[in-house]
Write a structure and sequence with these properties.
Blueprint (H helix, E strand, L loop, with lengths): L3 E6 L4 H12 L4 E7 L5 H7 L4 E4 L8 H9 L4 E6 L4 E6 L4 H10 L11
Parallel strand pairs: 1-2, 1-3
Antiparallel strand pairs: 4-5
Length: 118
């Protein structure tokens, strides 16, 4: 089985970036290929390192206000934003644990989970 190649980028909280890296690296089949502090050249870096997963920091003010209100008001909810006719998704979750983080990393790269495109 092929390793899931992850890039960690632009997570300004060092403790959070360290935790994500430790969780990922403690799971068989997940490899952190690089960790960078900013967003410079992310596309080139992603292509060059042949990543499967990009884990990137986001500012709360960039999340659409409606999503933030739902996450704040119903924290057990999952928001899945369908983009480009469902060919791209954005997932918003609150209070996830390390197991859920690993599950998210594995979704797209797990051969058994690949389904017909919508």
């Amino acid at each position: 089985m092929k390793n899931i190649r992850c890039l960690i980028a632009d997570i300004p909280q060092t403790v959070l970036a360290d935790t994500v890296q430790r969780i990922a690296e403690s799971n068989l089949g997940i490899e952190i290929v690089e960790r960078v502090e900013g967003k410079d050249d992310l596309l080139k870096l992603s292509r060059d390192r042949k990543i499967d997963v990009l884990i990137i920091g986001m500012n709360e003010d960039k999340i659409p206000m409606e999503y933030k209100e739902i996450l704040d008001g119903v924290p057990e909810s999952v928001i899945i934003g369908l983009i480009k006719n469902g060919r791209r998704v954005a997932v918003f979750l609150d209070d996830i644990g390390s197991n859920e983080l690993i599950d998210l990393m594995r979704i797209k790269t797990d051969e058994e989970s690949k389904r017909e495109v919508i």
